[in-house]
Design goal:
Blueprint (H helix, E strand, L loop, with lengths): L2 H13 L2 E3 L2 H6 L3 E7 H5 L5 E7 L5 H12 L5 H16 L13 H6 L5 E6 L3 E6 L2 E6 L1 H6 L6 H12 L3 E7 L2 E9 L6 H10 L3 E5 L4 H11 L3 E3 L4 H12 L4 E6 L5 H6 L2 E5 L4 H6 L2 E3 L5 H16 L2
Parallel strand pairs: 2-9, 2-11, 9-10, 11-12, 12-13
Antiparallel strand pairs: 1-13, 3-8, 4-5, 5-6, 6-7, 7-8
Bound molecules: adenosine-5'-diphosphate and magnesium ion (MG).
Length: about 325
Amino acid sequence: ATPTAVMVATGVGANNGVLIKGGDSLERAQMVKYVIFDKTGTLTQGKATVTSAKVFTGMDRGDFLTLVASAEASSEHPLAKAILQYARHFHFFDESSPTGCSKNDSEEFKSGWLYDVSDFSALPGRGVQCFIDGKRILVGNRKLLEENDINISTEVENFVVELEESAKTGILVAYDDVLTGVLGIADPVKREAVVVIEGLWKMGVIPVMVTGDNWRTARAVAMEVGIQDVRAEIMPAGKADVVRSFQKDGSVVAMVGDGINDSPALAAADVGMAIGAGTDVAIEAANYVLMRDNLEDVITAIDLSRKTFSRIR
Ligand code: ADP
Ligand code: MG
């Protein structure tokens, strides 16, 4: 393709919210064989909603939710935001108070109702840990609780499995090293996901999903959108290894992701595509920025490259 053709394509992309960093990226996209999608926030809306909360000890439900929300208050994770919203709603708009309660603009609504936490740490791919009144609280997946030797009863395990089989993520909570409750979180897939995955198959491109979430939830979501190849329970650094494993036979691999977690994988891919609002780190690591947060732009990007580099030979 002539420099002019590349310039035109870059302009067409920009008009559609597809920002291309350089002619090399534009050229590589035509040869993509695999597109590896992150799950949370990429295939799914990233607008997680708590759909259930179950307490397994004698703890009061309101106390439980406030405790969990306090622990998550410093986390940037979409799951943390969902938990906070749910707990806040319970705290301020519980059946005892009428709707339209005027408290919602106050400082208290934002943070005043939460407990003070100390020694907060975010554990990527696992959850969060902190201390409240000297007692440890862990909020996250099975792996997090197992690593900390928290006993998970059959009753709790069954509840979590049930959530996962319906494509939900189960978040486990341990307070003072006792499994206290579980939250079920739903994150619907993007409206266009099914059509885009089908489109990729038709173009001869193989879609793959990679996620830090558990196998059962991952499989349920993959099935919903039409992806067969799933890699689950992958720690953030592991996503880049997944990309490399697909590159081994010389295949050109695209990675589509939104989070900080995804930047090593975006950088490792032949074509890294940061989607949506994305984090700055992800945008930095990518060759393409898909501004509209619409998966159709993955196809637009590949199409644009194919058209640019086949027309002028
Ligand atoms: P993905 O790869 O799908 O974007 P992440 O790697 O961000 O997912 O997270 C993987 C898993 O780690 C989540 O499904 C959740 O179980 C757990 N997790 C991560 N951060 C948090 C958090 N702040 N609160 C609770 N659980 C978390
Ligand atoms: Mg993500």
